[in-house]
TrEMBL record, chain B:
Pfam families per UniProt: Robl_LC7
Compartment list: Cytoplasm, Cytoskeleton
GO annotation (BP), single: microtubule-based movement
Organism: Macaca mulatta
Primary location recorded for the protein, binned into one broad class: cytoplasm
Protein name: Dynein light chain 2B, cytoplasmic
Family: Belongs to the GAMAD family.
Amino acid sequence: MLPASAKAPHKQSRKQSISIGRGTRKRDEDSGTEVGEGTDEWAQSKATVRPPDQLELTDAELKEEFTRILTANNPHAPQNIIRYSFKEGTYKPIGFVNQLAVHYTQVGNLIPKDSDEGRRQHYRDELVAVSYQGSQESAKVISETENLEEDEEPKELETESGSQTDVPAAGAAEKVTEEELMTPKQPKERKLTNQFNFSERASQTFNNPLRDRECQMEPPPRTNFSATANQWEIYDAYVEELEKQEKTKEKEKAKTPVAKKSGKMAMRKLTSMESQTDDIIKVSQAAKIVERMVNQNTYDDVAQDFKYYEDAADEYRDQVGTLLPLWKFQNDKAKRLSVTALCWNPKYRDLFAVGHGSYDFMKQSRGMLLLYSMKNPSFPEYMFSSDSGIMCLDIHVDHPYLVAVGHYDGNVAIYNLKKPHSQPSFRSSAKSGKHSDPVWQVKWQKDDMDQNLNFFSVSSDGRIVSWTLVKSELVHVDVIKLKVEGSTTEVPEGLQLHTVGCGTAFDFHKEIDYMFLVGTEEGKIYKCSKSYSSQFLDTYDAHNMAVDAVSWNPYHTKVFMSCSSDWTVKIWDHTIKTPMFIYDLNSAVGDVAWAPYSSTVFAAVTTDGKAHVFDLAINKYEAICNQPVAAKKKNKITHVQFNPIHPIIIVGDDRGHIICLKLSPNLRKMPKEKKGQEVQKGPAVEIAKLDKLLNLVREVKIKT
Amino acid sequence: QAEVEETLKRIQSHKGVIGTMVVNAEGIPIRTTLDNSTTVQYAGLLHHLTMKAKSTVRDIDPQNDLTFLRIRSKKHEIMVAPDKEYLLIVIQNPCE
C-alpha cells in the first residue's frame, strides 16, 4: 500500500504547481526578459493554484484513504466466461480465465540449432566453408571480430567460426590476401533458402505460326417477304385448311385408282388451260357486279321509283289506280320474236324468265329463252336459243334452276341454268312421244314417288302428257286424251270416232293435287283428274273462241278464272256451271293473272296494248285501272305476270319487249282496319272476302 | 371467257361510262380503256384504298368480305369491284 496514492488529488495540484514552475523556468531560459519578469511573479507565488474544475471535497473526504490492490491480474480479461458444456448440457462458467496479457509481439527469424532447418543450413554452410578453408583463416579472424561485434549475426556463424578454428589452419596466407575481398562476401552471399523448398519451373513451347484460311460461297438468294397478320388472314388460312382436309377426305372416298388417274389428268389439263387464258375469266364475277352497278346508276331514278315511289295522287283518285312504268327489257336477238311466256323465279325474286317464239302460224322461226334480272335491265342473265319457238315455260319451285319449256314443234325440253350451255339438258323427241302440235302449256308437278322430277304438258293434239325424268331420260305417259264431246260419229261396225279436242291452257289446283282444268280451242273448259284418263269430272261452256288462259285463285279453292280471244274474262266457281263474273274488255284478251297478295285482284292484258286491273272488292263491274302499257301503240300484249313479293307486274308484248310496271297503292288495297279491330291477315281473310262477293252474286242468281 | 369480254364491252358502251380497267393483285393494270398515265394513277391509288376497305370490313367480321366500293364525287362515280385476284374499276358519269 502506497500512501502516496491516497493523496492523489492533492498531489496533482502540487505536481501541477511544480510543473508550472518548471515550465516557467524553462521559458525563462529560452525566452527573453519579458517573460522573466512574469516568472518572477510566478516563482514567488508558490501557493497552490487550484484548477477551476477540481473536485471540491470536504476535509473528511480528503482524509479518506482509498485502498488500491495491485495484482497480477489482467484487468482486461473477462472475469466470468461461460461456456456451454455438451457433457452436462448446461452453461457452465470456466474455472480459470487466462490472465495473460500480451503487450508486444514480434516474429523473429531465429531458428534453433537442433531443428531440421537449422541442421540443414549448418550442413550447407559447412560445405561452403570447406572449399574456402585455406584462404579464409585471416579473414575468419576478421569475420570473427565482425561477428562478435554484430550482435545480429546468426549464431551459426559463431558455431562456424568455432568449428573452423578446430580445422587445421594450413591455409596459405597468400590466398587470404588475394581473396580477402571475396571471402567476406561469400558468407554473405549464401542463398536465403525458403522454408517450403519451393521452386518454380517453367518452359515455353514453340508457338506455331498462325495462318488464316478462308472460303467464300455464293450468298443464298434472298427475297423480301412481308405480310400482315390480321384476324381475317388467319381466318382465311383456317378456312383453306378445312377445305383441303375435306378435299382429301373426298378423294379417299373416291377410291378407284383409275378414277384418280383420270382426275389427275383432268387437273393437269385444267391448270395448263388456266395459265394460258390469262385469267380474265376470274374477273367475271366482279364484272357482273360492276355491270349491275353501272346499270343502277343509269337507271337510278327507276330503281328509286321501284322501291319507294307511291303514287300520292291515288288518294284523290277515287278507287282508281295507275301503273307506273319502270324498266324495259329487250334484247336485239329476240327483237322480232313475241313474248310467249313469262315466269318469275320462285327463289330469286328479281329474276324472271321470258320465252320467245311466234304465234304466227305462217312465220315460224327460232325461239329464245332469256332470263332477266331486275338488277340489270340491259342484258339478260341467261340466254338460250332453240330452233323452234318456245311457247310456254315453267320454273320448278324446289329446283329454281330447272326450266321446263314447250316448243312450237311439239317438243318439250328442260334447261338447267346451272349449266349454261345453249342446249337443253333434256329433250323429248319424236321417239319419246313428243306432241304433234305446239305445246301450249307446261307445268311442274311434285316429284313422284321415286323422287323423279315430272311435269305436265298440254298441246293442241289433244294429249295431256306427263313427263318424268328417269335417269336423265324423259319418259312420257299420256294422262288424258281430250275428246270433243258430242262429236262422236258413228261409223259402221259400232266404232266410235272421237274428234280430238285441242288443249290450249291448263292449270292445276293448288291444294287438290289431282284436279286440274284444261281450256280448249273450242272454248270449253274441262275439269279433269289425273287418275281418270277417259272421263272429265266436269265441263264448262266457257267461251266462244279458244281459251287462252285458265287460272285458279291463289286463295279461294273454288274459284278460277278464264280468258279468251272472244274479248271476255270470266270468273267461275267450279261447282257452278255458269260464271260468277264476266268482263268484256273490247279486245282479245291475251292473258289473265291473279294477284298474289289479294284474292280479289287480278290483271288482264289485251291485244290493244292495254292492261286492266280489277279489284272485285272495290268494283265488281269495272276495272280499277285501265292503262295502255305497250311500248309502241301497235304492240299487242301477250302475257302478264305478278311478282310474288314486289308490287310489280311484267308485261310482254309481241315485239319481244318486256315492260315492268309498278302498281299504285289503290291497286293494292288491303281491307281497311276498323278502329279497334285487329286486321286479320292471311289466306282466311282473303277467302272470306271473296266468299262474301260470291254469295252476293249467287243470291242474285238464285233470285233470278 | 368470251362472256367476260362481252360483259366488259357492254359496260364500256353503257351510257355515261368514261372508262374501265382491270388491275391485278399487285396494282398493275392489265387492261384499260383510258390512257396510260391516268390508268396507272387510278390503279395505284384505288388499289390501296380497296385493300384498306377490305381490311376494315374483314377486321370487324372475318366471315364478311368486301363486295364493292363506290366513290361518288362531284364529277363522276368510281366503282371498284374487288375479286380474289383482280380489281375491276369503272368510272361512270351518272347522268343527272
